[in-house]
Amino acid sequence: MSDFDYDLFVIGAGSGGVRAARIAASHGAKVGIAEEYRVGGTCVIRGCVPKKLLVYGAHFAEDLEDCARFGWEVEGKSFDWKKLRDNVADEVDRLEGLYRNTLKGNEVTIHDCRASLGGGHEVKLSDGSSVTAKNILIAVGARPHVPEIEGCQQHAIVSNDVFKLDKLPKRIAISGGGYIANEFAGIFNEFGSTVTIVNRGDRILRGYDHQVRDRLLQISMTKGIRFIFNSTFDKVEKKEDGSLHLTMNGCEDMEVDALLFATGREPNVEGLGLEEAGVKTGDRGAICVDEYSKTSVDHIYAVGDVTDRVQLTPVAIREGHAVADNLFDGQDRTVDYDNIPSAVFSHPPIAAVGLTESEAREKLGGAYKTYTSDFRAMKNVLAGRNERSLYKIVTDANTDVIVGIHMIGPEVPEVMQAAAVAVKAGLTKQAFDDTIALHPTMAEELVLMR
Ligand code: NDP
Residue 311: CB within 6 Å of ligand 1? Predict the structure, then answer.
């Protein structure tokens, strides 16, 4: 008999926490998990999944335009935001149910309350009870960061709020130039809102290849999204008619119906009792961990966004899985952070893996080569949509090994998942050249670049 209530207690039932709990239980551990809001976490409840459904919903606007050249006449088309919003919410409910069932099916005990560290092996629960666990895993994620600006906390929204909007704003300003800003700019623009992205710097999507970023900027502007660079917000005021007056720094003031902040996410560490428990934190409060996701306290682990390593769902899942395998299956697993593919679900989307051209220049001291294919997808040609895709391969000039792939165009995240395997496996450009094209596809451009 164990001296503890649980072998593993997980705080936070998001992607990383649920995976760790489920795998640990499947290895025979007695597992408890606490969640203060909804099982599924950011990705399932208010992030990747509902966002992707909105992206699909938004893209119909273009399909309905494009279909005319393919012979389809669709009369009386209209868009009902509430219908999409509610259907997405229903799907999220369904997924939450599946997550709960998976946990229950693996005999994980779910505590629907907030949890904090009680010192030693104790976890305090907001229902007044407490439990003990041999090992504790913190997987509480992150939340949107909204800078301190007068009127912002009261009047601005964050991505979580978009899924609950009663109506679409006619005019929306979005602060930030990263993932969320570009994804939601595309969504609102397709739904007919007038969208202005305001960025503090002079570039969007820092970290992505410059050619791909420039292409998104150019296409987004052609679609009607306005970009304002090197500007920030001084003050946000609500007017009598419900609209917002934005006092700006660096550009003219604006009147909008909504202001969305997409300025990064910060670890959810408040009130967890970290300091009292001796768990060390670093930049922006992120929990410091070693390569096994172990914190400064021997039996306490942390995975996912709360550690601020790579803020991506599949990374949190890998980290959670590894912790469970190491603790309860005698394995010795760490997570390999090299060549993680990523995508921005903008209109059109971006996908990337490995080094950008400028990173290759820096890392390989100039011994790199690039290959690009700049083309208009067949479907866009017939549709009369003047929107070009760009695929780019970066290689190590000495070894011919592909060190990066960067793409923008229809469906590129789908293409990238397979291409990322090749980069992860260290394949050469010659291996791509040797592969016969699959025709006619957009992805064939990957093996036709010379
Ligand atoms: P990002 O880090 O992608 O972008 C943040 C943006 O806000 C940058 O343009 C940044 O400018 C700007 N910014 C940061 N702080 C301030 C500030 N104080 N004032 C003004 N501007 C500021 O964050 P997001 O919020 O878009 O997304 C959060 C994270 O969630 C992402 O990093 C990503 O890991 C994850 N995510 C992933 C998605 C996907 O995989 N498709 C989708 C959505 C989110 P600068 O460049 O100058 O720093």
Answer: yes
